[in-house]
Amino acid sequence: MTKKLSRRLREAVEKVEERAYEPTEALQLLKETATAKFDETAEAHIRLGIDPKYTDQQLRTTVTFPKGTGQKVRVAVIARGEKVTEASNAGADIAGSEELIGEIQKGMMDFDKLIATPDMMPQVAKLGRMLGPRGLMPSPKAGTVTTDLAGAIAEFKAGKIEFRADRTGIVHVMFGKASFSPEDLLANLKALQETIDRNRPSGAKGRYWRSIYVSASMGPSIEVDISDLRDLTMGEAA
Questions:
Q1: Which of 130, 162, 168, 238 is the most buried (most CB within 10 A)?
Q2: pTM, rounded to two decimals
Q3: pLDDT tens digits, one per residue of 141-155
Q4: 3-state DSSP helix/strand/coil percent for the chain, to nearest 5?
Q5: Under 8 Å between Cβ of 20 and 231
């Protein structure tokens, strides 16, 4: 049975043509179709020419959005001794050692990002079953296992996020809010595109980019012309 679209969504869908839009035009349309009663998230859905079941075709990395994400990021830090104080002074929302690990084991998950110092990782490893499915397990590749706590906390609060391609080779990333200007959304989308190109898996063969769509979280999908996006320079996207 086909689900009936709401009038709001039906009207939004009617604004979108079946074609690839120039990036700025697509982002302006994203804003026009974000008609929910809250500030919707801007999302990108990118199909890549990779098969993540092979280790040399997996994509997992981080991107720092120059215009931020529009979201408040709660950062927790697991460290020891003076590093706990350092984390608190650097703006961590939660900081602790073994006692924090114990609280997380009991179900405390009042954070969006978990950072740990390398010396605490043997103890943090026991949280893998709880943190892994939520994408919260610290890892060096994600920049969440580090001794530079102040730098990591500042980056994640400013708009650094981790993402990966799912098992079908599609990347789903939020890159701002519908209330952002088209210029700020474009700067973030350009940063995402450059990060994906820079981290192309060694095993990726043939055409790497297959398609890219953007949408507001409650709006219709809008195809972006990937060639136009990749041809933009940062000066044009700023």
A1: 162
A2: 0.78
A3: 888 999 999 999 999
A4: 40, 20, 40
A5: no
